[in-house]
TrEMBL record:
Pfam families: GST_C_2 (PF13410), GST_N_2 (PF13409)
Annotated active site: 63 (nucleophile), 194 (proton donor/acceptor)
Site (Lowers pKa of active site Cys): residue numbering on this chain: 252, 295
Binding site for glutathione: 96, 129-132, 147-148
CDD domains: GST_C_Omega_like (cd03190)
Organism for this UniProt entry: Leptothoe spongobia TAU-MAC 1115
Gene Ontology molecular function terms on file: glutathione transferase activity
Annotated signal peptide: none
Domain GST C-terminal: 171-295
Protein name: Glutathione S-transferase family protein
GO cellular component terms listed in the entry, alphabetical order: cytoplasm
């Protein structure tokens, strides 16, 4: 894996040495918003009006951030409104690619072989990481946005007048609570597992591990008295948590050494993740074969043999009893 520097691909692993062995995630750079009338959103430029068929989403089934956008595409009935490509599970020395493989959906716009081509189509001098998800505008021929937390907000409401299904996962009355939950869950859980897994010193790993499990204990407590994170209504905060929870036992416990406890050891979290998995349309967005092969085979510094464990045997389709 690597990154683009002035539009040129360089094969480089994350630099943790300048931060005491800590993994520090860089901010996404394309931050425009699709809006119902094309006016600018909270950041970036305007001109990106919601229109069926105009936008294309590049995702990886393995990636928890891209997974959020796929879930919102399904929940909001945007499958016929926004087209999708899926990269190969293996992130190799060329980064994400469209090499043929089970579940891969080739790039219909440029017939790209590697994902970094999409970034240089948007900006020939792009410097930065080549990440999924990417939301591409076929009309303006550029990247609208490559930040999943913003893409799901657009999907939640921007297409409501042009054929999206009803459903509001960021309702006005719950916004403060959702933002507050997101903040802690992003730092300690969604990104927390990466801080543990990509740490290159014992101290940096331990610094991330305890806050991760403190947060899981705290969420378990919340879910022992209410069905969802904000109460009885399913919101964006739940979906953002879900994509990390569903990967936790199959990947993060082993590969990222997040092994204080497993999700199956938490009765409420385990029921909750099964409930979300069983919501119509969600299971088809979860591809465990891409998830497991991606992590165990792409991170050579963590797993040099690239062996993919066969376990654990867990069943997300068991009744959730919630
Ligand atoms: N903040 C971004 C993060 C996206 C991200 O880091 N995606 C990972 C895959 S899970 C990626 O593509 N990494 C490639 C790299 O860092 O080189 C978002 O939420 O959209």
């Amino acid at each position: 894996m690597g990154l683009l520097v002035d539009g040129v691909w360089q094969d480089q692993w994350y630099d943790t040495s300048s931060a005491g062995g800590r993994f520090i995630r860089k901010a996404s750079q394309f931050r425009n918003w699709i809006t119902p009338d094309g006016r600018p959103g909270p950041t970036g430029a305007g001109g990106f009006q919601a229109e069926p068929g105009r936008y294309h989403l590049y995702v990886s089934y393995a990636c928890p951030w891209a997974h959020r956008t796929l879930i919102f595409q399904v929940l909001k009935g945007l499958e016929n409104i926004i087209s999708v490509s899926v990269v190969h599970w293996l992130m190799d020395k060329n980064g994400w690619t469209f090499a043929p493989g089970e579940g891969v959906i080739a790039d219909p716009l440029f017939n790209a072989k590697v994902l970094h081509e999409i970034y240089t189509h948007a900006d020939p001098n792009y410097t930065g990481r080549v990440t999924v998800p990417i939301l591409w505008d076929k009309q303006a021929k550029t990247i609208v946005n490559n930040e999943s937390s913003e893409i799901i907000r657009m999907f939640n409401s921007a297409f409501d007048q042009v054929g999206a299904q009803p459903g509001d996962y960021y309702p006005e009355a719950l916004r403060n609570r959702i933002d507050e939950l997101n903040e802690r869950i992003y730092n300690t859980v969604n990104n927390g597992v990466y801080k543990c897994g990509f740490a290159t010193t014992q101290a940096a790993y331990e610094e991330a591990l305890n806050p991760l499990f403190d947060s899981l204990d705290w969420i378990e407590e919340i879910l022992s008295t209410q069905r969802y994170l904000t109460g009885n209504r399913l919101t964006e905060a739940d979906w953002r948590l879900f994509t990390t929870l569903v990967r936790f036992d199959p990947v993060y416990v082993g590969h990222f050494k997040c092994n204080t406890r497993r999700i199956v050891d938490y009765p409420h979290l385990w029921g909750y993740v099964r409930e979300l998995y069983q919501i119509p349309g969600v299971a088809k967005t979860v591809n465990f074969s891409h998830i497991k092969r991606h992590y165990y085979q792409s991170h050579e510094t963590i797993n040099p043999t690239r062996i993919v464990p066969l376990g654990p045997k867990i069943n997300f389709t068991e009744p959730h009893n919630r």
